[in-house]
Structure formats: C-alpha cells, structure tokens
Amino acid sequence: MRAAAQPASRHPEEHPLAIHAPTLDPARLPALVEPLTALVAHAARAILAVERSAMAATAKADDTPVTRADMASHDVLVAGVAALMPGTPVVSEEDAAARHGPISGSFVLIDPLDGTREYISGSDEYAVNLALISDGIPLLGIVAGPARQTIWRGLVGAGAERLRLAADGAIAERLPIRTRALPADRWVAVVSRSHGDRATEAFIDARPGAVRDPMGSALKFCRVAEGSADIYPRLGPTSEWDVAAGHALIAAAGGKVTDGGGRPLRYGQQAHGFGLPDFIAWGDAAAGL
C-alpha cells in the first residue's frame, strides 16, 4: 500500500479537557498497517478463546451489554497499541467514560467487540474495529470478523483489501477490494439487524429499487467496501467507535461516509462523549442525497 495523503491541519476549539497529541507523519502509516492488522487478529483470537456457552453478560451504565470477550479483546488492543505507538492516545468503547475531548492530532479509536448482542446470541455477525484518526479524519481502518476468519482493511489513498486468515492468525489469502457504482435500478442497502429506526426505513423507502440486507455490526461496512452492497444508512444515534474503522475502509475502497445531511464526519471533536447522531455510507462516492 502507498502512503496516505496528509489531511489538512484542523484543530478543535480549545477546551479545558482537550487532548493535544502529535499528528503522525503520513509516511509512517504504511509501516503500521501490518503490525496493527496482526494486533487485530490477536484480539479476534482472544474473543474466540472465550467459551460463549459458559459466559455471562453484564450491563454497563448505558444499559448496553459487556462480556468477558469484550474485555479480553480490549486488553489485547490497548496494550498492543501502546507498544506499537507509544504516546498515541487510545479511545476504546470499554473505557470511553474516562476519556474527554476534543482530541487534536492522531489517536486510535477501537471497538473491541462490535455487535455484542449478536455475539451473545450465538451469531457470527460481530466484529473487532480499529481506526487511526488524524485531526478528526479516519485514515486507516481495520475490521475483523473473528468467527469468519476474515479481516478487511483500508489505508486512505492506498486502497483496501480483504484477508482470509489461517487458524494461527497468519494471512492465508489477500484480495484487493473496491466499492461499486450505484446501480440504476436494483441496489442493496445493508441495515442493522438489532437497531432499526423509522428515519432509516423512510430514507430507503424514498429510493425505489432498494433491497434490504439485515446484518449485525461493522460487517455492513465491509459489504459496501467490497462491492457486494451499495449503501449503509443509519439515521439514528450511534457511537464513533462503531463507525470510524468502517469509514476509513470504505474511503480507501473508493466510497464515502457522511452524516445524514451529506456533510463530512469528524471524530474525537466533542468536548464530552463520542456520539454520532447519524451517518450514511455510500459505495459510490458520486452518489448523493
């Protein structure tokens, strides 16, 4: 993969709790792709090592579930990023309550187990998400499907790939992927299996020819990035760690991710929290509202 283009320098409005981190030199990013991919593969194996049938889930303060598998992946990722990228802030879903923003410079945003409800139910539609953000812009995204032995990754400006993993986590096969042009008639909208909302349904209904494909977790971004789906709209609230890795992946594969009004998304720019009101992932970067 070639180096990503350097984003324009932007700094969030000054805030007493603002985090000022160095911005990584874009020339360094290609060298981080392989070790960060290996780290995500390690986290995926940590999830698979947990016996689901004997595991209990607990509720977090926001009433979402968390399991031993979430925490096993979190521990691997946080320790691994600290070793690979000393001094780079890490924001994980599992410790985000202790984090404040806005964050300038570069940071790593992770969801150790995206789709915990699917994981608890016994489905294979769960993922591990890792994104590298610079000045609010996601430049590198890695999404693993642990139960599918697959990783999707993309470096903006350098392209995207789908990797099939061997049992030991080694890369057994790699395939370049790219989004596709929006079809003129029948097009595929991937939608959340667990978090449907009226605004999203109305958005799809207003565009004739849509075929809905329900899925769990960030695997929906992967379908768009590899050109087997066309759009992923989510016009209800979600969190930055649910979106950032898939955002970078789709951008690297030739698509775009915007907010519900078609405006650019930026990450780590809020004074408190890491919420997003909505987003739309487009496989065809020329498509619009």
Features:
seven-stranded mixed sheet, 2 domains, Fructose-1,6-Bisphosphatase, Chain A, domain 1, 29% strand, alpha+beta, 289 residues, single chain, globular, D-Maltodextrin-Binding Protein, domain 2, three-stranded antiparallel sheet, disordered N terminus
Describe what you observe in this structure.
It contains 6 helices and 18 strands. The chain is an alpha+beta fold and 289 residues long. The chain has 2 domains: 19-177, Fructose-1,6-Bisphosphatase, Chain A, domain 1, CATH 3.30.540.10; 187-282, D-Maltodextrin-Binding Protein, domain 2. The strands form 6 sheets. The chain has a 7-stranded mixed beta sheet, with helices on both faces. A hairpin with a 5-residue loop joins strand 10 (159-165) and strand 11 (171-177). Residues 2-13 have low confidence and may be disordered.
The top-level CATH class of the largest domain is Alpha Beta
The CATH level-2 architecture of the largest domain is identified as 2-Layer Sandwich
Average pLDDT level? 90
At the fold tier of CATH, the topology name of the largest domain is Fructose-1,6-Bisphosphatase, Chain A, domain 1
Cα-based radius of gyration, to the nearest Å: 18 Å
For the sheet with most strands, the description reads: 7 strands, mixed
* Widest beta sheet: strand line-up: 4-6-7-8-9-10-11
Task: For the record, give the distance between the C-alpha atoms at the N and C termini, rounded to a whole number.
Answer: 32 Å
